[in-house]
Design brief:
Layout lengths: L1 E8 L6 H9 L12 E9 L3 E8 L10 E8 L9 E8 L2 E5 L13 E5 L3 H12 L3 E10 L3 E6 L4 E6 L2 E9 L2 H10 L12 E5 L1
Antiparallel strand pairs: 1-3, 1-4, 2-3, 5-11, 5-12, 6-7, 8-11, 9-10
């Protein structure tokens, strides 16, 4: 696993999915189904660019004029049971609500929508569920982040939307090291293509 600092230089505003596409250029030859990186926008300044922290399974290639690879280091993550870690996670905590009118999609399944969790106790419960038995929360601070706006276009149509990310920060105790490491590699929660899900940890 590798941890990289990236700066994307742009003069015109970019939505979060465009930033995701720019990071793809650091992994030539990978298609979308083989995405092997997570990222978080650390800072973004209009007319200048965005500073990004990126975690990847393979080492990124050298950047280009627009996508500057500032630093990369291999991250051997070795943990033991009952080890305490500080953590930071910017995530998209949501719940799924089924269509109240019982309308169905083309496959005959009742339609559903993801809606953001609003109450702090709901967000904390969401975080606890995501950690499952792999880790135990010792302390937790929950704070809102600026909304992320995106526009994504596929072969048939384009669509836009907004994600309301939440920052989870605190201290946890590892219970099952191997499963916890796998969770760090996979990321937590939805919207990983939009800068959510990267779990950063450090020794407490």
């Amino acid at each position: 696993m590798y941890l990289s600092k990236v700066f994307i230089d742009f003069k015109k505003p970019k939505n979060i999915y465009q930033i995701h596409q720019d990071l793809w250029t650091l992994f030539p030859g990978q298609d979308d189904k083989a995405r092997s990186f997570l990222f978080r926008v650390e800072q973004q300044q209009a007319g200048v660019g965005a500073s990004i922290l990126m975690q990847s399974e393979i080492a990124p290639s050298a950047g280009n004029e627009q996508v500057n690879l500032l630093a990369t280091r291999e991250l051997p993550l070795t943990l033991i049971k009952n080890q305490r870690l500080r953590f930071l996670l910017v995530a998209n905590p949501v719940k799924t609500i089924k269509d109240q009118q019982q309308r169905k999609n083309q496959k005959g399944v009742i339609k559903s929508n993801r809606v953001p969790l609003i109450k702090e106790e709901e967000r904390q419960s969401w975080m606890e569920r995501k950690l499952q038995s792999w880790a135990q929360l010792d302390s937790l601070i929950i704070r809102p982040c600026p909304p992320l706006y995106f526009y994504k276009k596929d072969l048939q149509k384009g669509y836009s939307g907004k994600i309301v990310p939440i920052a989870f920060e605190g201290v946890l105790t590892v219970q099952e090291p191997d499963k916890f490491i796998e969770q760090v590699k996979q990321g937590i929660g939805p919207a990983k293509a939009f800068g959510c899900g990267l779990l950063s940890v450090a020794i407490a």
